[in-house]
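Q: I'm writing up a methods section and want to include an example of the input and output format. Could you take the sequence below and give the corresponding predicted structure tokens, formatted cleanly so I can copy it straight into the document?
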Amino acid sequence: MQLSNNPPGGGPFNERTDAELLLQSRQDPEAFGEFYRRYVRNMIALFWHRTRDRDVVSDLVAETFANALENIERFNAAKGSPRQWLYGIANNQLKKYWRRQSVSEEIRQRLKLETPTTPTSGWNQIEAFEDELDNERLLKALDRVPARSRQAVKMRVVEQLEYAEIAERLRCSPKSARDLVFRGLKRLRTEFKRP
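A: Here is the clean output for your methods example:
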């Protein structure tokens, strides 16, 4: 047995007007399916033009048609065409989306939150944050190194001075300057590993 694409009491769906399809959708979901097929590309184009985000477009198209189906009883041909009615729903969905975006952006700003990284934006923010944490730990560990060794390490590592210059500044021999740097780095390593 072959199923007919004809609604009861009329011709095939593709011969029906949009208004007839919407009216018939109240009893027959297949009629709404045809209405959907007629307008889904228009909705995709509309939302793509406004958002340029595939996931958002997909969500908005789904929400628009779900809303249209839920409110099919509200369609009134005297107030406008089915196309106008559908575009009205689409514009309302778009306004809700922008409102949600605006609120979430405002909350992020207020809480000083950054948008999480995505696969396309990479891991740069996370790596930078980890580096910042490591730098903070390093500075705290350096604070726990004895003062004279700490000075020697800073001169050697940060200022990149030669041992002779370090010795001159610290008023000691170059061998002592080397020992101070060595002991300072060893202590720094130990302190840095501490939780």
